[in-house]
Design brief:
Layout lengths: L2 H20 L3 E3 L7 H4 L7 E8 L5 H11 L8 E5 L4 E5 L8 E2 L18 E6 L2 E7 L5 H19 L1 H7 L14 H4 L28 E8 H11 L3 H18 L8 E8 L1 H4 L8 E8 L8 H13 L4 H16 L1 H5 L2 H16 L4 E9 L9 E8 L7 E8 L2 E8 L5 H12 L4 E5 L6
Parallel strand pairs: 5-6, 9-11, 11-13
Antiparallel strand pairs: 1-4, 2-7, 2-12, 3-4, 6-7, 8-14, 8-15, 9-10, 13-14
Length: about 450
Amino acid sequence: MPEKEKRKEQRRLAREEFFNEAEVWWDKLDNTAHIFPIIAGEKMSNVYRISVFLKEDVVPEKLQEALDLILPQFKGFNVRLRQGLFWYYFEENGKAAPRVKEESAYPCRFIVQNQNRNYLFRVSYYKKKINLEVFHVLTDGMGGINFLKELTYQYLRLTHPELREKLGDGLSSNTSMNREDSFLRNFRKMPVKRYHSKRAYLIKGPKLKSGEFAIMHGYMKIEQLKEVCRRYGASINEYMVAVFAWSIYTEFLRGVKEDKPIRIAVPVNLRGYFDSITTKNFFVMVSAEFKAENESYVFEEIVEIIKESLRGQISKEKLEKILSYNVSNEKNILMRAIPLEIKKIAIYYVYRLAALANTSTVTNVGNIVLKEEYEPFVEKFNGIVAMSKGQNLKGLICSYQDTLVFTFSSYLSEPSIQRRFFRKLAEEGIEVSIESNGAYYE
């Protein structure tokens, strides 16, 4: 080929390469997600797990095939994280799906991207259980549950061809693929009101060995739980948070006054308040606060204090103020112009201060509903959240059909709060079945 034609061909190939790269899909992080890449690491992974338990052993090859089939349909999961000049952003991954592996380590470990084909989630299994672990930068609990449900449906269609013949092979019509940033869409410019929380009472004590992570699940019937909640005029969320606060108070404060409040962070799903079906993060944090100002409190008093604390914060008007305050920092022109490397320092500093404002966190991912045709194959669900700075013990609530599970995750070597919590439920007439990952008995 003549030199002139050769150069012409090289320019053509270069142009094709440029336009092919330009077609790569990319997306912004939502308002909440900006913080996670900055604070995440081996000691604070910001990874959560949702697990589904089938009524038969998992076939690994079929689970991998199911993941291979559905991942390309989920833009929000088919991404890798990239660092720009001013913010992190998502870019289409394009690699083969991450490998499905048998569970062999403690849950919610940090997801090292270059060891996971650059994906921000992992799928594992153990006997009848399928685990989905998600780096919170991708989505909150709703987005994770959406993905796990479709993965489970696809898996069951592969292992039970009669389901595939009856239902087809597409995603469910009620599975959202919406990727809007609902924080920005619902932002309203308001007078600046800064939220300052003083340091909370922190749960301290001997810890498990490095790398160990204790899990304890408590399963209970929802009708029994509702009956007890009615006696206190409380919602399930309010009652569970109150039992948690009471357990901390009883085991650690032991009837003594304490200047620092027991403050439990409670994420609030904003979708129902702002008519959103986004699969990105869309929640804000409120806090249930109890301060031991007197010598001793009975449980009924703590329930009333927690109810009043939560109800004073959870309304559309007040949630909108929190949302708008959080987004105002992102929309600030000066903040936007600061290079990411400097933003990292500032964001991490602010996070360290804010992290010590809460004793613990209780997350309720809600009631998980499956399509009727798949229900006979599924026994239960549960979930786990990772630890964060200053919080050595956390709780997660989820329910399926007639059963609710409250799951404790902990770095502490002594499960005194967990024991007190479940014993209190039993005293109230709620039958609880306990499961543990064995970290306290090894």
